[in-house]
Specification:
The protein is built from four helices and no strands. The chain is mostly helical. Helix 3 packs parallel to helix 4. The protein is elongated.
Length: 76
């Protein structure tokens, strides 16, 4: 089971955003970018395929990540 996020990128964007106050209500979406979630899904799929192990991603929030998951499902 994998929570699909790119922690290093989110940490970097959080630090960058924190250095330029004020931070508004949209701060979460500014650091949790759609493509970062999709990248994490693709990375998890690649690792699972390489290790030949099952993969469960409990939830996805963006279309790009869902599309990546569907592409992987078609490959199997």
């Amino acid at each position: 089971m994998v929570h699909a996020e790119n922690g290093a990128a989110i940490d970097y964007l959080t630090d960058k955003l924190s250095s330029t106050p004020p931070v508004g209500n949209n701060a979460y979406t500014m650091v949790h970018r759609d493509l970062l979630e999709a990248e994490a899904v693709i990375r998890a799929i690649a690792l699972a395929e390489s290790m030949r192990c099952p993969l469960y991603i409990p939830h996805l929030a963006v279309k790009e990540a869902i599309d990546a998951g569907e592409l992987a499902r078609e490959r199997l």
